[in-house]
Design goal:
The protein is of the alpha/beta class and 119 residues long. It is built from four helices and three strands; from the N terminus they run αβαβαβα. The longest helix is centred in the C-terminal third of the chain and has 18 residues.
């Protein structure tokens, strides 16, 4: 499976990428990711705020969002689902297990999952 992976460093950059603004203003705004892997503990703007802003905008509302985080807090899980996360996965600490989890997530969301048709 070969897919382009875009990595951003903080919540502000994530929103800039998704909405094609700031440093990502030249990006084709119509080309959206197939899935967003979102950490809750992002600098500048936390992952819950990013998720809330994504769900508030019709351009990003249908994107599948997998919260992939080290948090084991029930409140984080509840809030993530309340804000519209499609999945909540606790990040494995061990890198090999993390790589395997990322591969499995990719397999499901990019191959098996049937996204909604374009509007």
């Amino acid at each position: 499976m070969v897919n382009r992976i875009v990595v951003v460093r903080d919540g502000e950059e994530a929103l800039d990428y998704l909405f094609a603004r700031g440093a990502h203003a030249g990006r084709a705004a119509a080309l959206m990711p197939e899935v967003v892997l979102l950490d809750l503990k992002l600098p500048k703007i936390d992952g819950l705020e990013v998720l809330q802003r994504m769900r508030a905008d019709p351009r990003t509302r249908p994107l599948p969002v997998v919260v992939l985080t080290s948090s084991n807090e029930e409140q984080d899980k509840l809030r993530s689902y309340d804000l519209g996360a499609n999945s909540f996965v606790r990040k494995p600490v061990d890198f090999a297990h993390f790589a395997e989890a990322a591969q499995q997530l990719g397999l499901y969301w990019l191959v098996l999952n049937q996204p909604p048709p374009p509007r």
